[in-house]
Design a protein that fits this description.
heterodimer; A: about 600 residues; 22-stranded antiparallel beta barrel; 35 strands; B: about 375 residues; 4-stranded antiparallel beta sheet; 28 strands
């Protein structure tokens, strides 16, 4: 019991250190995950792992979690509305979201809406900064966000019921079951989030957020079966269904709504044969949206895509210091809808991943991938990296990669306007990272440069004046990221401090202007304090001024938001937790997107029952 | 009275009659301006969709003055709204239709001071005309619904919508003539081919079938002229457009003038003198109203000014006003060209003025 308590306790304190928990997943032998590449081939890049206790401490959406716990900037069209990331100064389509090893960015618009991902469904969410297309495929240009479920074997039967309720009638219910024996592991989660989302504007020009109500329900199951000591069967499945009314702007009411229905399914057979590992995967992903111009009307516009994926991953360990993987994959996507007609795309790919640790202080990793498809010419994708542990407390990381983003179905097939001859966006990236660890302080600093060419942009055609996408844009993004972690314990007092800062200069190569909705400065801080059964935490977010496409309102002002929460644990055998959270407690009047005010001070109460 | 005084008096009368014969809307004898924005053209800038950044610009008739964003200057901290579509005048009031915001802002047209807002009873409002104390506003309703389109009737004394008149899909431009409203059905999300005729006396509606996608109308001598674009390239089947002449007494088509082929799309019809002017792409075409066939070549083009063609178009006092939306994100341009009809004026198409205005200049409204 002590160990369990300690685990929980530590978990509560750890707030996504950039590298403190780098190997935490690896350490747990009985755990099996479906995204092994994340830990195996990311040694020369920074990967921040947010475990389930960090996830539980934040609001339900992936936007809220990552705004405060990563350096990804989010442009949110009002609270809970469409949320688009900008990672290292790149566009929303240049951040890949990876679910248990599979790229789940929309085939229709190329991005993931971070407000359609319910964080409670995952055991850990990892943020991998920098290019990763050679492993994760399209969109892994600025970086990738990994949603993962673990399967644990060994006898256990745990339930978690989490309830929270707060301002604007915001309700969250989450239940998770984890049951396992030595042979079978089952994890099931069900989540429901809803809100009237009718917060008052601190701005005096309008009264409150109208037509912003939403709900979503998601169901998630992971199943593992040990056929023998050497053979595993795994299955992951997830269903997300949500409806959001899209709120309007300060001067313009809206009356529309939008429904999402996404499903993700993966089965996997793993075989361990001496130095060989073999993983055979099959997956089916589907996405569907319905846009109702008038929420009261039954008329809607539909867009839908279905993808089947087959993947084979053969690994060989030469010796404990050297290993390689050959990965073959094939995917076929069918997209259809009123605007894009019905089209299909097949992509075959082959990649080779290699890792070598010739010296105790020197590690290399390399990956190369080539995709073949009818639609376009795909560049040779690769990544080369090295980790130099120069001193006991000091490491240097170097990584160079070539990455890409493939055209979406909307880009290619939007009725009459789409451009079927688009090429993928192409990116070169180089980064230099340093890590310093001294007693209970650790610091990491990364410099990077990304050069993106063939960027797909919609603009009026020179001859016809009609809007159409083309591969014309070119962007150079350079930046620095700094992360600081400090941990302090004295008796039963524990303090944990994480701060990070990003400086991002991302400019259009022609206009030499900073991209819209990419802040030059972003920073966040998490401080957690625990004493016996009491914990308190403070979160701080600073987003610098951003530019907008509007000429009349060319900028959205910088803002600082602070959240403060306390919680107390009850119970002797099982842990019950009661938490209170004040969000934006300094009542900052701010907008994430132009003319779409965000809420002022608001509260929520949370009860978590472990049984 | 000595000779010189007589001479100047006669000269004045000559100018007066000259001006009046060209255009009887503007008196050359100016009175005290009614406000800062009297005696000039208001340029309506649509703004970026979803940006709430529609704006108005002012260009004085003597071309000496340009002022951008005049609504914001007169109404600090008030946002005009999203995606401006049209302006109508009634007495000293101006009605700014904001399609994206589903509202009409009512302003003093000479000072730009806001006097009110009309929000109820509008759904996707497009264009407005004024007749007999009432405003008539075309509304698409839900763009995806072909059966909920209407003309809203506004009692201008109370600024409230008092009735709605159902019409077929996609009502766009609207004008009044002899107590009848003519509504061009551009088609909304579809492609219209009708003109609705609404008798204001009893709100009865009849329709006239014209060519596909009627986009502009003008009246002269009891004849309604319509330019229709034909179906655009992104329609299932593209087609060329033309002009249609309608007798407003019988409301029957007198004659249709078509372009051959399927890629010629006229728009922006304006009548001036005995000619119709319209645009195709970046070309400006002139058609004598008694001619038999449409001209195949433009009288001039805007190619030298830019590549994007004509977004808005008007003619006043021997000048052509042309709005260029450019890339739809940066400030748009207004070009003023000679019409070539004034005494001693340079030939038609001679560029006289260039102004940088707000994003997407969508219309010109002559304020005097």
């Amino acid at each position: 019991m002590t160990a369990k308590k300690l685990f929980l306790f530590l978990g509560l304190l750890v707030c996504g250190a950039m590298f403190a928990q780098r190997d935490s997943i690896v350490a747990l032998r009985e755990v099996t995950v479906s995204d092994v590449s994340l830990r195996k081939f990311s040694a020369s890049q920074s990967v921040a792992i947010l475990n389930d206790s960090v996830i539980a401490k934040n609001a339900a959406s992936l936007t809220a979690l990552l705004s405060y716990n990563s350096l990804i900037y989010f442009k949110e069209n009002g609270l809970g509305m469409v949320s688009s990331p900008a990672f290292r100064g790149t566009t929303a389509q240049q951040t890949a979201v990876i679910w248990n090893g599979l790229n789940i960015n929309s085939q229709l618009n190329g991005q993931t809406d971070f407000n359609t991902v319910t964080t409670a469904n995952y055991d850990h969410i990892s943020v991998r900064a920098g290019g990763g297309s050679a492993i994760y495929g399209s969109s892994a240009i600025g970086g990738s966000v990994h949603l993962g479920n673990d399967l644990r074997f060994g006898n256990r039967f745990d339930n978690v019921l989490d309830l929270n309720y707060g301002s604007f009638s915001t309700l969250g219910i989450h239940y998770k079951l984890k049951a396992s024996t030595k042979k079978v592991s089952l994890q099931m989660g069900i989540s429901r989030n809803s809100s009237d989302n009718d917060y008052a504007f601190l701005d005096t020009r309008a009264k409150h957020n109208q037509n912003g109500q939403y709900y979503n329900t998601s169901f998630n199951v992971a199943f593992g079966y040990k056929l023998s000591d050497k053979h595993f069967l795994k299955a992951h499945s997830e269903l997300f269904e949500g409806e959001r009314h899209f709120s309007g702007t300060v001067a313009s009411k809206s009356k529309n709504k939008y429904q999402d229905l996404n499903s993700r399914n993966l089965i996997e057979w793993d075989a361990l044969m001496g130095k060989w590992t073999s993983k055979l995967k099959a997956a089916f992903l589907s996405e569907r949206y319905k846009y109702f111009e008038n929420a009261q009307s039954p008329l809607f516009e539909l867009g839908q895509a279905e993808t089947i994926i087959g993947k084979y991953d053969l690994g060989y360990v030469f010796d404990p210091k050297m290993s390689a993987n050959l990965v073959l994959d094939y995917s076929r996507t069918k997209g259809f809808g009123k605007q894009i007609g019905e089209n299909e795309r097949s992509i075959g790919g082959a990649s080779l991943l290699f890792k070598h640790q010739p010296l105790r202080w020197l590690g290399f990793e390399a990956s190369v991938k080539k995709e073949i498809t009818d639609n376009y010419q795909s560049p040779l994708l690769f990544a080369l990296g090295t980790q130099l542990d120069l001193f006991k407390n000091y490491s240097v990381l170097l990584n160079v990669s070539r990455n890409f983003r493939i055209p979406t179905f909307n880009d290619l097939y939007w009725q009459k306007l789409g451009n079927a001859y688009l090429d993928p966006e192409s990116s070169w990236q180089a980064e230099l990272g340093q890590r310093l660890k001294w007693r209970n302080v650790s610091v990491s600093a990364t410099l990077y440069h990304i050069h993106i060419t063939n960027m797909i942009a919609w603009s009026p055609d020179e001859n016809t004046g009609n809007w159409t996408p083309s591969n014309l844009a070119e962007v150079r993004s350079s930046g620095a990221e700094i992360a600081l972690h400090y941990h302090f314990s004295y008796g039963r007092h524990h303090l944990d401090w994480n701060s990070s800062y990003a400086y991002t200069v991302s400019k259009d190569a022609v206009s030499h202007e900073q991209l819209d909705y990419v802040p030059v400065n972003k920073s966040n801080t998490n401080v957690a304090y625990a004493y016996r059964k009491f914990t308190a935490h403070y979160q701080y977010l600073f987003n610098g001024q951003v530019f907008t496409p509007s000429q009349k309102y060319p900028t959205v002002a910088s803002y600082q938001v602070s959240n403060f929460g306390v919680s107390y644990h009850f119970g002797k055998v099982n842990v019950y937790r009661l938490g209170l959270l004040a969000s934006n407690f300094l009542n900052e009047n701010y907008q994430s997107t132009l003319q779409r005010p965000m809420p002022g001070r608001n509260y929520s109460i949370r009860i978590t029952l472990n049984f | 009275m000595n000779c010189s005084k007589l001479f100047f008096a006669l000269l004045g009368i000559t100018f007066l009659s000259q001006s009046c014969s060209d255009d009887d809307d503007i008196s050359p004898i100016r009175y005290t301006p009614l406000g800062k924005y009297d005696s000039g053209v208001l340029v309506l800038n649509q703004g970026g969709f979803g940006h709430d950044d529609a704006s108005l610009s002012y260009i004085s008739f003597d071309f000496t003055k340009l002022e951008n964003d005049i609504f914001s200057l007169a109404n600090e901290d008030v946002i005009l709204g999203d995606t401006a579509q049209d302006v109508a005048f009634y007495g000293s009031l101006g009605y700014v239709i904001l399609n994206g915001s589903n509202k009409i802002e009512v302003v003093n047209r000479y000072t730009m001071k806001r006097v009110g807002t009309i929000e109820t009873g509008l759904s996707n409002p497009r264009y407005m005309t004024v007749y007999n104390g009432k405003g008539y506003v075309t509304n698409w309703g839900d763009a995806g619904n072909a059966n909920d389109d209407y003309v809203a009737v506004i009692n201008l004394a109370t600024s409230s919508v008092t009735a709605s008149i159902a019409v077929v899909e996609g009502p766009e431009k609207i004008l009044e003539h002899n107590g009848k409203l003519y509504v061009a059905h551009l088609g909304g999300y579809g492609f219209g081919n009708k003109i609705s005729v609404i008798k204001t006396a009893d709100s009865s509606v009849s329709t006239i079938t014209v060519g596909d996608v009627p986009n502009a109308m003008a009246v002269k001598d009891n004849f309604l002229w319509v330019s229709y674009g034909g179906k655009p390239f992104f329609a299932p089947v593209e087609s060329s457009g033309g002009l249609v002449k309608i007798n407003t007494t019988t409301d029957a088509v007198v004659r249709a003038y078509n372009y051959a082929g399927d890629t010629t799309h006229p728009a922006n019809l304006v009548l001036d003198g005995n000619a119709a002017y319209y645009t195709i792409g970046s070309g400006i075409y002139k058609f004598a109203l008694d001619a038999v066939t449409l001209p195949s070549t433009p009288v001039f083009t805007t190619t030298e000014q830019g590549d994007y063609g004509v977004y808005s178009f008007a003619i006043k006092q021997n000048h052509i006003y042309l709005g260029d939306a450019g890339n739809y994100e940066d400030p748009g341009k207004v070009y003023i060209y000679s019409l070539g009809t004034g005494i001693g004026q340079a030939p038609i198409g001679t560029l006289e003025q260039t102004y940088s205005v707000g994003v997407i200049p969508a219309g010109f409204y002559f304020n005097f």
